[in-house]
Amino acid sequence: MASVFSLIMEGKIPGNFVWKDDKAVAILTIQPIRQGHVLVIPREEIDQWSDLPLGLAAHLMQVSHKIANALKVAYPATRVGFMIAGLEVPHTHIHLVPMDSMDDLSFAFAKNADGEALKQTAEKIREVLHKQGHSESKV
Fold it and tell me: 82-107 as b/e, with b when 16 or more CB fall inside 10 Å?
């Protein structure tokens, strides 16, 4: 059965994309810990990150790096947290979260986000990515 992320990539479930290329996508989570919480996801459904082919793992890191730098501009914070938890959806995904303290990485603070707010957040991040010269994304 396809993961929820695959269904989003196929357009069967709506998603707020900030990045699309032939190997990966990045979307806003519908339950963000903080504004700007992005998920970077390989197109290929691989459950555990340690099973990713090294080239794909490197690509996910490159995409995450670009998005993290855009998040620093769009949602200034002390840093952008990077986390792979992997228990809630059996499809590898990287959480990128603007953060000022360790508490900002707690899923206890996750709340369902308003659809319009997610659209505005995605647009803001895409705009910064474009200004930073990342035209390789197909969003």
Answer: beeeeeebebbbbbbbbbeeeebbee
Contact 23, 111 (CB under 8 A): no
Count Cβ atoms within 10 A of the Cβ of residue 71 and give its class: 0-12 exposed, 13-18 middle, 19 or more buried: buried
pTM: predicted TM-score of the whole model, two decimal places: 0.94
CA dist 59 and 81 (Å) reads 18
Q: Facing residues of 133 across strands?
A: none
Q: What percent of the chain has pLDDT over 90?
A: 86
Domains of the chain: 4-100+110-131 (3.30.428.10)
Task: Kindly report, residue by residue over 80-128, the tens digit of the pLDDT.
Answer: 999 998 888 999 999 999 999 998 888 888 999 999 999 999 999 999 9
Helical spans, DSSP H, in 11-77: 54-74
